[in-house]
Amino acid sequence: MQFELDQERVNRIFSARNTDFGDFLRKGMEFYHDNPEVERIILACQNRVGLEKKRQRVWEAQQRGQGSFGWYEGGAPDVSELLTGRPRMHPHNVFLFYLACSYADGVCKADARALIMESESLRALLHCSTKRMPGITTILEQVNQIEAHSSERILQLQLRWLARKDASPQWQEMVVDSTAIRANAAHPCDSALLVESLDALLRQYRRIHEMLGVEMAISPKVEKWHKQAHVEHRQMGMMRKKAGAKKRIRQGYRGMLHASVKILNHLIQHEQKWMHEAVEKTLLLSIARRSRFEKQRARYRHYLHTIVRLIEQSHMRVFEGKHLNMAHKIMSNKDPDAVIVSKGQREAVFGHKLQAGFNRAGYCCAFLLNKGNGSDSRSLHGVLSRSIENTGIKVIALSVDDGYAGAKTQREVTKLGVQYFSVSGAKGKRQQGEVLWNDPTIQELRNWRSAGESRISTIKQRQHLRRLRRSSRSAVEAEIISKIFAYNLCTYQRRLLSRLRKAA
User: In Å, how far are 2, 4, 29, 198, 491 from 13, measured between CA atoms?
Assistant: First the structure.
């Protein structure tokens, strides 16, 4: 799917080259054209999404033909190829928007949207068949088709490409450090989660009936109980850190749980009546509207089950005094994989723990997203293995802080070819002994260790990774990979510019 740029477009490209964003895009497209596999990866992602949509359309047509009704659960019928349909976005443009979104702060903020929609550099690099800039929703839909494992392969191709373009012994030295990234969710609180789930449940209830045109208003009783839950939650928040707060909070939870149980019982009792009418109405809907209805109904059922679990969870914690394992608790409605990450004496963060490895040249060669708040030492082998797999280059020298200390960890990294292993801090000194601790090479590695913190800070600040924009583990991984990709490309730009300045 190669194409030729006309002269007018070439002139536009070079006229817009004096911006950092324009330079970033051109370096990204240079990588794209040097690696044809990237186009094949994006095409495979588009085919996957397209085939799933076609399966759903064929299934719905079959259901209508048979006069039956059911819920599509995926996988059937057997549709193996896409023969017809609307023209899809060219992979070249998909990757270009992938670059733009990874550089900017997604498309959630106004300045990020303005950068993407108004950039002359971006318009100049678009495929020549594109008549106008697509909308933000279309851009997001196309970019989000590139799932985590595909993004990981693109990152691997980038690192191999950078190792050829910017070859040096610095790729054999690595520093590894961990950091906590805030989730796209509020800090967990049982009462807040409960009222949030009740709000979402009733919102889905209203949307279902509005979509179907079914006259089924929420009972005044339900509205009363819903308001009661909100009042109790608000009063509990005001009572915290005051005299008698513990007793008042228990009373508040009792009122909240009582109101929530009443709401659930009422909705479940009346569900059969309105769902029967909903099924009949759904048979008359278009395929697109029916699909939206199915999603709304799935969300409705999800929040029903979530509220049941939150009621049980709150009762066990508040009234039975049980301490529940985080793995068995609902921590968030938006990001169920987020956990409370504690690092030393720092403030605990509700989000995800990221392990990142950087070489001496400044590139991020590997990352690992911990499940839960796991120890650093258990993750080091995984980060190092990924780095070797991504770059094809063995790491000879490795520098870490004392969170990675341990005899087992040292044995693991030695097996992977590490000759110089520096562990800073008191634990590292005990592990390595006085002689090795004072070795000049180990000392130099120990002094360099803070570079890991600096580069993590750079990714968070420049690539806008202080707080995640997406939720769920796979989406979070895809977002992190895209930011690391952008960071590596920016690092390559800075190194090239530095060489040009030295040469001049």
Answer: 18, 14, 12, 52, 22
- Name the residue range of residue 213's domain: 190-328
In tens, the pLDDT along 94-112 reads 999 999 999 988 766 788 8
Looking at the structure, do residues 38 and 170 belong to the same domain, yes or no?
A: no
- Say whether both 374 and 315 belong to one domain: no
Tokens 């960071």 correspond to: 487
In a domain, 177, yes or no: yes
Asked if 354 and 484 sit in the same domain, the reply is yes
- Taking the alpha carbons of 93, 99, 103, 104 in that order, is the dihedral positive or negative? positive
Which is higher by pLDDT, 70 or 377? 377
The burial class, CB within 10 Å (0-12 / 13-18 / 19+), for 426 is exposed
Report angle CA 264, 267, 272 to the nearest 5 degrees.
135
Q: Are strands 349-359 and 339-341 parallel, antiparallel or unpaired?
A: antiparallel
8 A C-beta contact, residue 463 and residue 483: yes
pLDDT of 309 > 70? The answer is yes
**Contact indicator for 39, 1 with CB cutoff of 8 Å:** yes
Instruction: In whole angstroms, give the CA distance from residue 42 to residue 51.
Output: 14
499 and 354 together in one domain: yes
* Residue 155: inside a domain: no
pLDDT of residue 420: 93
pLDDT digits (tens, 9 = 90+) for 20-29: 888 999 999 9
Q: Are residues 228 and 286 in the same domain?
A: yes
